[in-house]
Specification:
Distance between the termini: 28 Å
CATH class: Mainly Beta
Protein name: Phospholipid scramblase
Number of domains: 1
Strand content: 25-35%
Oligomer: single chain
CATH architecture: Beta Barrel
Radius of gyration: 17 Å
Cofactor: Ca(2+)
CATH topology: Porin
Number of helices: 6
Structural class: alpha+beta
Function: May mediate accelerated ATP-independent bidirectional transbilayer migration of phospholipids upon binding calcium ions that results in a loss of phospholipid asymmetry in the plasma membrane.
Low-confidence stretches: 5-22, 266-276
Keywords: Calcium, Lipoprotein, Palmitate
GO molecular function, one term: phospholipid scramblase activity
Largest sheet: 12 strands, antiparallel, barrel
CATH superfamily: LURP1-related
Helix content: 10-25%
Length: about 280
Amino acid sequence: MSRHNRGSPYYHNQPPVVRRHHQQQLPEERDEPIDVPNAIATMPVRITGYRPLEPASALQSIAASNCLMVVQCLEPIEMMTGIETPNRYIVHDMFMRRILYAHEESDYWDRSCDRNRRSFDLHMFDNRRQRIMSSSRYGGGSCTCSPDVLETWHRGNSIGLLSRDMFDYRFYLRVAGCPTEFCIVAPDSAQSNPACRTRHTLPFPIYVQGGAKVGEIVRLDPGYLEWVSDADTYMIHFPVDMPVIIKMLLLQATFLIDFTYFEDRGQQGNGAVVYY
């Protein structure tokens, strides 16, 4: 667990401040689910041994969805001054309904010095301002030799671990109690010079142990906003029958991908992708 939250991940139990988004256009609710290209209908393998999550309306909506959209909120202060501020995200279901809100907890020193490698806690709330889960990033920091780790907590219990070793462009997801491992692969263009990452839609394919593809985390083309903000939008798609705990862990993985490749536009990438 990161140093921002040494005890229980629920030590800081303040819900996020609800802010209006007059300057940012968010997806509108739909009567029909959004069409997902390259969608995978069903899980190719049976997943067992995972810890069940406590019921919540947002989790029920995600359990019935085959995709999620994650929109990072624009930060006017950061855009005007260049001072890094904590990230905030809004999560939509397949009908583009806002179901979850996430906000970063980190200190100014880490944001200024470690930038996209910084440690942080990420807290996620539903529309009732009830905490659904929290994640803690540690191990990366200014020492890039350490493995980058994101641990996710639900009701005080660790439910999953996402890790990436130095010079490896695969993120490995291990679900608590589950023998099956997942792998998220970064595309070549995400590892190249930041100028090559701009103005492109970039898919990060998700594989289950054994090599079968079970979905993608797609960073959508940011358009002109690329030049004024590092805020991005992501589409996560997966089989509708994937266990909800794994869907939630893939959602947490999206945040780590955002920090790793797109948070600091000046960060240099290197190396070549190694496929699972």
